[in-house]
Amino acid sequence: MKTKELTKKTEKELKDLLIESRHKLGRLKFDLSSKKLKNVKQIKELRRDIARILTILKAQKNEQGK
User: Fold this and answer.
1) What is the mean pLDDT of the segment spanning 37-65?
2) Residue closest to 61 by CA, chosen among 3, 7, 2, 11
3) If you average pLDDT over residues 11-31, what whole number do you get?
4) What's the CA gap between 13 and 44, in Å, rounded?
5) Domains of the chain (ranges plus CATH)?
6) Residue 66, pLDDT above cutoff 90
7) Residue 51: partners with Cβ closer than 8 Å, 6 or more residues away
8) How far apart are the C-alpha atoms of 32 and 41, rounded to whole Å?
9) Residue 37 carries which DSSP code?
10) Intra-chain end-to-end CA distance of the chain, in Å
11) CA 45 to chain centre
């Protein structure tokens, strides 16, 4: 997901997306261990998306604190 798309979302939407992404990452890791996953690159992309979400959440929290 693009950073511009994420910055337009509210805090609640970002938190919901974060929970959903973490569950999806768990499923992908399980599929990888059971050799069902064909595209390993998905894990890397999803981890980066999670990092983007966390970064934006932290930035929003810092803006509210000012």
Assistant:
1) 94
2) 11
3) 97
4) 22
5) 3-61 (1.10.287)
6) no
7) none
8) 11
9) -
10) 28
11) 9
